[in-house]
Amino acid sequence: MDPVNFVACQLFALLMAVWFRIYLHPSKTSPFIRHVVATLLGFYLALFCFGWYSLHFLVQSGLSYSVMVFAGLEHMHKYCFIVTLGYLISCQITRVYVFDYGMYSADFTGPMMVITQKITSLAFEIHDGLTKQEGQLTPSQKYLAIRRMPTLLEYLSYNCNFMGILAGPTCSYNDYMAFIEGTCYQPHHQENANGKENGKYKQSEPSSKNDVISKLCTCAISLGIYLSLCTLLPVEHSINDGFVSSTPFHLQVIYLYLAMLALRPKYYFVWTLADAINNAAGFGFNGYNKDGSPRWDLISNLRILDIEFATSFKMFLDNWNIQTALWLKRVCYERCRINPMAATFLLSAMWHGVYPGYYLTFLTGIAMTMAARAVRHNIRPYFQGSDSHKRIYDVMTWAGTQVAISYTVAPFVLLAVGPSLKFYRSWYYCLHLLCLLVVLALPVKSRRLQAKEQQDGSGQRHAVPPAAGTLRQTKTTESWTVASLFT
């Protein structure tokens, strides 16, 4: 019944989102009322789905808020990060090793993972806003920085509102407050694609109806595909002794790809429905396209076509679980001084849970990322001479990316050490060895070192920090090489 309860609650949240936008519109209702209603509805959905386990959401939020209030600003973000992540991990350990190891459906630690992202992001943004000078912040950090401590109601509304309590996605505190206060449309009304004022698009508040309907259709298709294929193509069959001994290796590769392909629509359904709920409430507006149509992808978590047709490991990462990737980038990758890529993958594994398969997946992901970067840096230039060569390269890299992703993610699905190692043994650890050979044979400088050398060569940075409105429009498409992608 867990998945049924989850879907029922999300459909109820969708109806409440429409009601929230119409009857509690910022022009009719104060931010205080909108905060109260969003929070109470969120707690109601949590209680319905998880019963008294939902008290963990309040305990985690309460402990973290106490740290924010009573700890010194200089180290508040670090203490808050440790307390919040530590509480999440303790709940995950209890759930997995005390109650039910194989319980993988809707569970109370799922919402806690999103709340952990929000709390830690908020702590770092408060630290940036109250302890650092403008010159010490990157352009994106300037936009995200929080200049005052949130009240308890604002804090709980941000963490536990009904639109994101069950499946997220994570959003920045400033974006959420702009939505509650009704100011989220203003920056975009002042400029068109060329950055000039265009009165045609500022006459009325943009409608999300078409985007919501489109996303609900995507949800229906994704759910239908998943329910049709998930039992026909189980990933566990790929380690069946009879299957491994009687099936040629190339057919094993194809089967693994199809099995992973059959799993992804589950995530497409959950994340797209969550995005539609936020859009129906009026949250997620991200400016206008060149044709003047509104964009509602501010907090979108995936781009399905870019995932399925990804021609590089990086392209797949950039379009899967986008908000989690941005969270990892902002709280770890940009701030870690020692081996940020490894630290980011480790944080991602710890955040996902305590199943050993998660750690095998993300350790493999480090090797895959390094190898993919080396191949792109050293091999790709040879295929850029003509369109036909580019197409050949794209086909080859698409196939390689899909196999690499499937190989990397298999332990994430199998969960336990035994089945995961059995799978890799059946493949003779071939992609691990190939990654090692590629990294040794095709060395490539880190992106930070390349950027530093380029900066030293030019003597100055030429990039001009964009305006806040432009940052808001582009921040969900920030590109980087390390991301969390598998939940």
TrEMBL record:
Signal peptide: none annotated. It is found in: Endoplasmic reticulum membrane. Its main location: endoplasmic reticulum. It is a multi-pass membrane protein. It comes from the Eukaryota. The chain crosses the membrane at residues 6-24, 36-56, 76-98, 358-375, 395-414, 426-444. GO terms for molecular function: acyltransferase activity. The keyword Electron transport does not apply. Pfam families: MBOAT. InterPro entries: LPLAT_7/PORCN-like, MBOAT_fam. One of its GO terms (cellular component) is endoplasmic reticulum membrane. One of its GO terms (biological process) is lipid modification. The keyword Acyltransferase applies. Residues 452-476 are annotated as: Disordered. Keywords: Acyltransferase, Endoplasmic reticulum, Membrane, Transferase, Transmembrane, Transmembrane helix. This is Membrane bound O-acyltransferase domain containing 2. The gene is mboat2a.
